[in-house]
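hey so u asked for the seq, here:
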Amino acid sequence: MEKTRYILWGLLLVVLTACGSSLATTIGPSDDVIGVSGDPDTNYGKEPWGDERPYLYAGHNDSVKYAVIRSFMKFSGISVPAGQYVESATLYLWAGYEDASAQVNVAVGADDSWSEDTLTWNTQPAALQYGGSDVVIGSFTPTTQFGSVTGYTAISLDVSNPTLLSQLLSDEMITFILKLNDETTAFASEQFDSKAGGHAPYLEYTVVPEPTTLGLLAAGGLLGMFRKRK
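ran it, structure tokens below
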């Protein structure tokens, strides 16, 4: 009997370890584009000569028509299987700064139906709201002068917000809005490579089974083994 107990506990450990293994996935944006408040009806998805723009921005500059600039990224094909949840997510940007170092927030868009070929400042998706404020799941402040960036900036995203998971599960997509924390700060402009640049942004996320799923799988497996033994 004692030997059987040890065997069952060993099996429980094996089952929990196997079922609890995480699955990391890396994807790039399907769409990315900027919106410009000083030119609110113009789409900036392409350069004047037709190529995709290689850079994204988050900034504010009152001395030119651009005024406030925001960046929009859409990640499609995000898979969260039934009985699992997003344990962690990290957004990677090749980022430097041009005018002044300023905090950039990563907000979550409420609508994923936009396209980089048609989005303008006036048609940009609004940010998801939670408690009366934008759902901001990450932020960072570039500290490296543009032109001397040597690696990606990793922005750890807060995946605990319930509105974030519901947005993911609704259509297997998510939109990130990159905007200055204070959009009234003049002459602050952050620049990032777009998917058409030399160092495309990407999202890495990890999904794991829900704790209840682990328990049910483990209990079911042990019950089956115990019945066989009897």
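The CA atoms of residues 5 and 173 lie 46 Å apart. Residues 4-19, 213-219 have pLDDT under 50 and may be disordered.
lmk if thats what u needed
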